[in-house]
Design a protein that fits this description.
The chain is α+β, with helices and mostly antiparallel strands. The chain contains 1 helix and 3 strands. 9% of the residues are buried.
Length: 70
Amino acid sequence: SCSVPIAALAGMKSDHQLILHGQVISLDGKHQVAASIEGEITMASDLGEQLAEQILDAGGHKIITQVDHT
């Protein structure tokens, strides 16, 4: 379901460089995990997957799991 505050932002750093920002926040706002990644625009999909893995591994999975059990 769509019950976890999740943020994502993508932007161009240069003509060929993409920067992605992502964040997961607990419902009470006390816990958050944020990360960013940069790379070639041709690798956008891979960068998105890598960023998601970074956030999940850094505690995002725990935040999402706690919300799913409320």
